[in-house]
């Protein structure tokens, strides 16, 4: 059967001209970049399951669940998947014949010097026909009720390649939603830990305000006793006012972060439930440990890499379909139904039953410039998709490596900052004792209090940076499958 089809196609090429059946060369893309593996196959490397043990805050999980249900970007992405699924349904059924119910009525006035006109004239006067067979009126009516069909035979796989391209783009749309889901989850998590950091900063400021209020009261007593000057009172008071002003800046940051979280969850501004503030300087706290290896298979499962690969596959199929368009196409157009030139005779079976079929092989001649342009566009898109795929792999690898370095460096910095805060807190106590006993001046006390405030705030930011590094690592590995 296939041999006979190719013989027919070859005959069509000879009939329509050899030039009409020329086609373009196959697509040849450069070699793909190989993703390096940084650890031995049996080494303990990063897994997405390890993040479930890190991000265990129930309030955070509730926020994520709410965002996955109500985030408007995710809802829109779901609708885009539905549209892609509808396109896939059309592509899957493109090879099937189109069958249409046809009901037509018309009239024709044939000239006297035409075959049909002369034939109708002779038929009306012929003694060999009955009254039902006489045409009678002029113009001549025409009635048809039946089925008409058109079926394009996919000789060269054009429809198959179009179906493959549509399937790849449908899957790419699903990967795009998975990428968006990962970004939403990472965004919620990052903002949540930033909100906790702001709560910690606020608690630190409140604690230092009380400490500085005590210092102001002490210096007033010492002034009344003649052991301190008005300048010392002014300096302590100015420091207290500066710290009190910091409180309102932090409160504004908290309100801004809460509003961002609410927007990601598709709701109006309201209070965000979260875990209570814990002491940032906790000797029992251990930063989470993340293995340093980057598994290549996990990296390649990133949704953006999967989407880029599917887009590349789709563009390859587009090129093959564009190549197939240069070859002749075979179309079969059958019909069957009731046909008559009198309405009363339309359903008089079997005399009014008509059927027929037309098969046609067509090859492009004058529209080959358009086909060649389409082929060039498809080829350019394929190269573009290939380079984007390669760049996505490079970007993914550097994102993972950067996130790993950030987590490791923030862990080291957190350890040192924790020790610094402990030392400075002891320095404040020492400075207060020395000041009350006359062995230190007020500037040393102010300096000690200022230093511990800055160090505690820096420690909060360091721990926040460590968790944000973990969030970046989670996002760069593609998030939850």
UniProtKB/TrEMBL annotation:
Pfam families attached to this UniProt entry: OEP
Compartments (UniProt record): Cell membrane
Membrane topology of this protein: Lipid-anchor
GO MF annotation: an example: efflux transmembrane transporter activity
Record flagged with keyword Ubl conjugation: no
Keyword line: Lipoprotein, Membrane, Palmitate, Transmembrane, Transmembrane beta strand
Primary location recorded for the protein, binned into one broad class: membrane
Domain of life: Bacteria
Entry keyword annotation includes Mitochondrion: no
A single Gene Ontology CC term: plasma membrane
SUPFAM superfamilies given in the database record: Outer membrane efflux proteins (OEP)
Alphabetical list of PROSITE patterns matching this protein: PROKAR_LIPOPROTEIN (PS51257)
InterPro entries: MdtP/NodT-like, OMP_efflux
Family label: Belongs to the outer membrane factor (OMF) (TC 1.B.17) family.
Listed name of the protein: Efflux transporter, outer membrane factor (OMF) lipoprotein, NodT family
Organism phylogeny: Bacteria, Pseudomonadati, Bacteroidota, Chitinophagia, Chitinophagales
